[in-house]
Specification:
By secondary structure, the chain is mainly beta. It is 13% helix and 35% strand. The chain is built from eleven helices and 46 strands. The strands form ten sheets. It has an eight-stranded parallel β-barrel, surrounded by five helices. Strands 3-2-4-9-6-7 form a six-stranded antiparallel β-sheet, with no helix packed on it. Strands 14, 15, 16, 18 and 19 form a five-stranded antiparallel β-sheet that branches. Helix 4 (389-401) links the parallel strand 23 and strand 24 (406-408). Bound molecules: beta-D-galactopyranose (GAL). Beta-D-galactopyranose binds at residues 411, 466-467, 504, 521, 543, 546, 570, 595, 603.
């Protein structure tokens, strides 16, 4: 888009001030973006396809904490010899077990986020408490590390003969599954999906009982990981002749202005007779129009056997998937045998090319594109690891607002709705597995990841791991073998994508040889030399920056655990300006992924207690932008951008020199202090401008010029004290489906209605009507207030409230008022969110409502 001139703006009646632009930007524009994204498949009902039924199994579970050491506090589980001795004997998973004292809740659920913070720094530098955000989870906290989930469900007699599966998108971490007294199976990692065939254990035409024992004592990572069933659970019913799980692949190749789709799947026969089956594909465009069809030859399939089925289809003039136009298609894949449809599924896919060139960087659909990426963990304020689907899109909207066009799912297999949001919203992905290993578990996790997501156009890189120092160094020989096996497996399952790893080191030995493209973590001194030596290897920044800052703070103060917002960075890291100047100015660098987009719980760098989360985020735990956000918006975004900081409330520091910075992509910026110009400065390419200004209350104003014209201005004014609260929501109408959420921003205002950037008032929230409060936050890395209580202190003027719709359409009323402190009254704020009736996605009926 061309730059807009001052005249254009004036004549269009658009507001010229960048402060209102900034105020609207990350939040309101995200809201607009999301409004346009209102047909998320995860939130809206997905129409059933064919005879398969898939039910959300999230609602109406009972929950209690168990105990990792004391069987008497763990449902008697673990007394010893008799635990697994007879099939069907687990009484807690049968009728008659009394769970009336257990709490009722819906999934996704993370019990770690509900626990108080505990200060325990034993264990030194690698202390798991610290790295997991000081929550009492782990073997030293047996009382709070095991959770039990239980619920009843009915299966009608008509389901006899079908295959019935319970499917978990992921849980943390060791899960034992019991149904109707029988032990069904076990999962022991925190990120890969897992499922069990319940067919033989079901009581048909009767009540059934499922119990999960989830043990979060072991960790997979060095960051907050949550505890519990933090992703969705599904109950899936298929015919005995059915499609294999994640075996359906739509592999497009673009030839000129048409695309060939190589279509493949596997049909399984778990029936009593051999059968023959064929598969049909119906390809739909984004509007639902059929644009191609195909059919495989008939295959015979023995009992308990399977057969691959393939076909080809051609699309003329396909609408390509890109970051600007994330066009998606879907294929409805149906198995027919004996003239009957037996199973079907819908697979979403996109058509695009992605190429890493050793000389010229990355190309999407043949066009050069820098990867402007961020790494992210998966937790959010208020909800921990258990994100409602809508929050995934909310978070992505925040990142996209600063020009981020790619995310790395560091350091684990992502939640499906995060990938779906990337597909839908045009954000590329580096998709990473947790365990770098060719042991059976490591390969299984990798395989699940690739099979699960290989139809997603957003994914451009598979990553087999992160910073495996031993495998890159002293165990390089094993590292090379492990990486070779993992890369080979990725290529077998998906020959269309490159495989890489995030390597912190020189990439000269160990895992690196096996990789298709070479990722460097940090170490800006290394890529130039590597590039010279290895001209045929494509390079990118797999992890960069690790800049740190505390939102709204402008001094690094170890007594307050704050980091200044100008140039905070860890010793091994680079400021945004340092790393992007490097990557942004080398053609052969494909771009990179900054550590991190969002702040996350755990790894409270650079301080320890009472800090409970990291300060690496470009936005805080709530998604409120820090100042670094605007560096990226200036140099990654496509629009004119101007951001002036710090705030101008320096009471008591009159006469002090205050550094004033501006991030902008305009030609020049002029700074005014109380209406007096301090002169214009030329903005260096990929840089910033700064002044030192003697503090005098009033206002500072930056004016940004393009082609000699003022294009944007931004002002910071010294505000008065807080007198009122303002509530705004990302959306004021959401779905009444028991899942959808609205994200509310809480601000402090002075008498003139200006946001008070230093306010820290405690605000209480009353939520009534058609919704409930599910979490609060404020982005303060040192705040140990509860994420679940209906109150929160503002941190530098802001807090966040997340409300979730019930299933009854109506209005959610939110009231915010001063809570529990003396001092001047604040004018409360009220907001209503409408929840609209929608067709809900099929869910397992809750037999017994809350007791
Ligand atoms: C990296 C690591 C990340 C995070 C980061 C902090 O080395 O891959 O997980 O710990 O350091 O700077």
């Amino acid at each position: 888009m061309p730059f807009i001139t001052r005249r254009d703006l004036l004549s269009s009646g658009l507001v010229l001030s960048a402060s209102s632009f900034a105020a609207r930007s990350a939040f309101a524009r995200t809201a607009a973006l999301l409004a346009a994204e209102s047909t998320e498949p995860s939130v809206a009902a997905i129409p059933a396809v064919g005879p398969r039924e898939r039910f959300l199994f999230d609602f109406g579970w009972k929950f209690t904490l168990g105990n990792d050491c004391d069987p008497s506090k763990d449902l008697g589980f673990g007394y010893g010899q008799s635990d697994f001795s007879k099939t069907g004997d687990f009484k807690f998973a049968k009728a008659g077990f009394d769970d009336s004292a257990w709490r009722t809740l819906d999934l996704p659920h993370d019990w770690a986020v509900e626990l108080p913070f505990v200060h325990d720094d034993s264990g030194g530098r690698d202390n798991a408490m610290k790295s997991h955000g000081y929550k009492p989870v782990g073997r030293r906290f047996p009382e709070t590390s095991v959770g039990w989930y239980r619920r009843e469900f009915e299966i009608p007699s008509s389901d006899l003969g079908r295959r019935i599966w319970v499917e978990f998108d992921g849980a943390f971490r060791d899960v034992l599954v019991f149904v109707n007294g029988c032990f069904i199976g076990r999962n022991d990692n925190g990120y890969a999906p897992f499922r069990f065939d319940l067919t033989d254990f079901i009581a048909y035409g009767a009540k059934n009982y499922i119990v999960l024992r989830v043990d979060a004592s072991f960790g997979d990572g060095w960051f907050y990981e949550g505890a519990g069933v933090y992703r969705h659970v599904w109950l899936t019913k298929t015919d005995a002749v059915h499609l294999g799980k994640w075996d359906t692949v739509v592999r497009p190749s673009v030839n000129g202005d048409s695309a060939t789709l190589a279509l493949a799947t596997i049909v399984c026969n778990e029936g009593k007779q051999p059968t023959s089956a064929k598969v049909t594909w119906k390809v739909l465009d984004a509007r639902g129009a059929t644009v191609a069809t195909a059919e495989s030859p008939e295959q015979s399939i023995p009992v308990d056997g399977s057969a691959p089925c393939t076909a080809t289809a051609t699309l003329a003039s396909p609408a390509l998937w890109s970051v600007d136009e994330p066009n998606l298609y879907s294929a409805i894949v149906t198995v027919e045998s004996d003239g009957q449809p037996r199973d079907a599924e819908r697979v979403s896919f996109g058509i695009r090319t992605a190429l890493f060139d050793p000389e010229k960087g990355f190309f999407l659909n043949g066009k050069s594109l820098k990867i402007q990426g961020t790494c992210n963990h998966q937790d959010h304020a208020g909800v921990g690891a258990a994100l409602p689907d809508r929050l995934q899109a909310f978070r992505l909207g925040v990142l996209r607002e600063m020009g981020c066009n790619a995310v790395r799912t560091s350091h684990n297999m992502p939640t499906p709705e995060w990938v779906e949001a990337c597909d839908r919203m045009g954000v590329m992905m580096m998709c990473e597995t947790r365990q770098m290993s060719s042991n059976p578990g490591g390969l299984e996790q990798l395989e699940l990841m690739v099979k699960r997501y290989r139809n997603s156009p957003s994914i451009i890189i598979w990553s087999i791991g992160n910073e495996e120092f031993l495998l890159q160094g002293p165990m390089a020989e094993q590292g090379a073998k492990i990486a070779t096996a993992m890369v080979r497996r990725c290529h077998e399952l998906d020959p269309t994508r490159v495989v890489s790893a995030a390597v912190n080191g020189n990439n000269e030995k160990g895992v690196s040889d096996a990789l298709d493209i070479i990722g460097f973590n940090y170490n800006l001194k290394l890529p130039d030399a590597f590039h010279k030596e290895h001209l045929r290897r494509a390079l990118y920044g797999s992890e960069t920056s690790s800049a740190i800052s505390t939102r709204g703070e402008y001094a690094t103060d170890p007594l307050r655990n704050t980091v200044n917002s100008y140039d905070g960075v860890v010793p091994w890291g680079e400021t945004p300006e340092e790393w992007w100047t490097f990557y942004g100015s080398r053609d052969w660098e494909a771009g990179g992924f900054a550590w991190t987009g969002f702040d996350y719980r755990g790894e409270p760098t650079p301080y320890g207690w009472p800090s409970i989360n990291s300060q690496f985020g470009i936005v805080d735990m709530c998604g409120f932008p820090k100042d670094y956000f605007y560096y990226y918006r200036a140099w990654w975004g496509k629009e004119p951008s101007l951001h002036l900081f710090p705030h101008w409330n320096w009471h008591g520091r009159e006469g002090d020199q205050i550094p004033v910075w501006v991030y902008s992509n305009l030609d020049e910026v002029e700074l005014f202090v109380n209406a007096t110009s301090l002169g214009r400065q030329k903005v260096p390419h990929l840089g910033h401008v700064q002044w030192n200004v003697k503090y005098d209350p009033g206002a500072i104003e930056a004016r940004g010029y393009k082609g000699g014209e003022v294009v944007l201005t931004e002002k910071r004014e010294t505000t008065g004290p807080t007198v009122a609260i303002r509530l705004t929501a990302d959306r004021t109408e959401i779905n009444a489906d028991g899942e959808d959420v609205a994200v509310l921003k809480v601000e402090a205002l002075d008498r003139e209605g200006r946001a008070v950037p230093t306010a820290g008032n405690v605000i209480g929230f009353k939520v009534s009507g058609a919704g409930v409060l599910i979490g609060v936050g404020n982005g303060d890395p040192n705040c140990q207030e509860s994420d679940k209580d209906p109150k929160r202190s503002l941190f530098n003027g802001l807090a966040q409230v997340i409300v979730q719709a019930t299933k009854e359409p109506g209005e959610i009323h939110i009231e915010a008022s001063k809570e529990g402190w003396d001092g001047p009254e604040l004018t409360p704020a009220k907001l209503a969110i409408t929840t609209k009736k929608v067709e809900m996605r099929p869910a397992v009926h809750v037999i017994r409502e809350q007791s």
